[in-house]
Amino acid sequence: MTEKFKILAKFIKDMSGETADIETYLFVKDNISKYQLNIDITSKAIKNKLIEVNTTLKFEDKEPNEKKSYFEIIYTAIVRVNDDVKDKKDLEKIILCDVPTKIYPDLEKSFLNLVHNSGHPGIKLEKKIDFNKLYNERFN
């Protein structure tokens, strides 16, 4: 099966790691296992079958703690969709599933570098994100 799109460029659009002070860092160090990873994918048509796909990862504490760190990365892919892609469902699957799956290794590496360089070297993403599964769960 030939791919219905081509990634022309991919880059970190925005990256943020925020830890207010030493006390916060020490608190987070002991509680980071409670942090949750959130994923958000947005897209914007540019022109001539070009689409900007932004995949955002946020790693944050959902508890109402005073002391918390915040980690976020927005990874952008510029994608050209083939002319034969006419169906909205096909386009949706490319944007929400195929592109994120392709860029994920680079996104994960950049995101983990951010977290590790913020003083939390032991953090790993336990399982790979299955964008196909997430995509299919949206309709159930």
SSE topology:
Elements: E1 5-18, H1 22-31, E2 36-45, E3 50-60, E4 70-81, H2 88-117, H3 131-137
Antiparallel strand pairs: 1-4, 2-3, 3-4
Number of strands: 4
The percent range for strand residues is: 25-35%
As residue ranges, the low-confidence spans are none
CATH architecture: Roll
CATH level 3 topology: Bacterial Protein-export protein SecB
Question: What's the end-to-end separation, in Å?
Answer: 27 Å
Number of domains: 1
Q: What is the mean pLDDT?
A: 91
Helix/strand structural class: alpha+beta
The major pleated sheet works out as: 4 strands, antiparallel
What is the CA-based Rg, rounded?
Answer: 17 Å
Number of helix segments?
Answer: 3
- Helix-strand topology string: EHEEEHH
The CATH superfamily is known as SecB-like
Any overview of this molecule?
α2 crosses α3 (131-137). The chain has helices spanning 22-31, 88-117, 131-137, and strands at residues 5-18, 36-45, 50-60, 70-81. The model has no long low-confidence stretch (mean pLDDT 91). The chain is α+β, with helices and mostly antiparallel strands and 140 residues long. The protein is elongated, with a radius of gyration of 17 Å. The chain is 34% helix and 34% strand. The protein has a single domain, classed as SecB-like (Bacterial Protein-export protein SecB, Roll), CATH 3.10.420.10. The protein contains three helices and four strands, in the order βαβββαα. It starts with a strand and ends with a helix. It has a four-stranded antiparallel β-sheet.
